[in-house]
Specification:
Blueprint lengths: L1 H22 L9 H11 L2 H4 L4 H19 L28 H15 L1
Length: 116
């Protein structure tokens, strides 16, 4: 039981150091359109490989595209969130601080695809 407490403490210290180091990091680079193309290229053959029916495949592409867009739209001030514009999609909270938007998009995509 003591080891679990020690690992939690060590994990908390590591997380604190990572957050502090991230706060001092330079601004992330500008968004590259190729990143979106690469995500779509990876996602495109998935329904065929998984032998998904057309309705399931279209739902997968729709959810994945929405997650990718929501993860990246704040990188460009010309784009607006779809939260509150689509039926059943509530507005998202505004993030605080600086973010590496391609990483945010990758995490959003991962959560959606593992949740389907």
């Amino acid at each position: 039981m003591r080891w679990i407490g020690a690992w939690r403490l060590l994990g908390g210290i590591a997380a604190s150091v990572a957050i502090a180091a991230g706060a001092c990091a330079p601004a992330p680079p500008a968004l590259d359109d190729r990143q979106v193309e690469e995500w779509i290229d990876v996602l495109y053959p998935l329904p065929k490989a998984e032998r998904l029916s057309p309705p399931v495949a279209s739902r997968l592409h729709g959810y994945a595209g929405l997650a990718l867009y929501e993860g990246l739209h704040r990188a460009d001030p010309g784009y607006r969130s779809l939260g509150g514009q689509l039926i059943g999609l509530d507005p998202f909270p505004e993030p605080e601080g600086e973010h590496d938007w391609p990483v945010v998009a990758a995490e959003a995509e991962r959560r959606v695809l593992t949740g389907l």
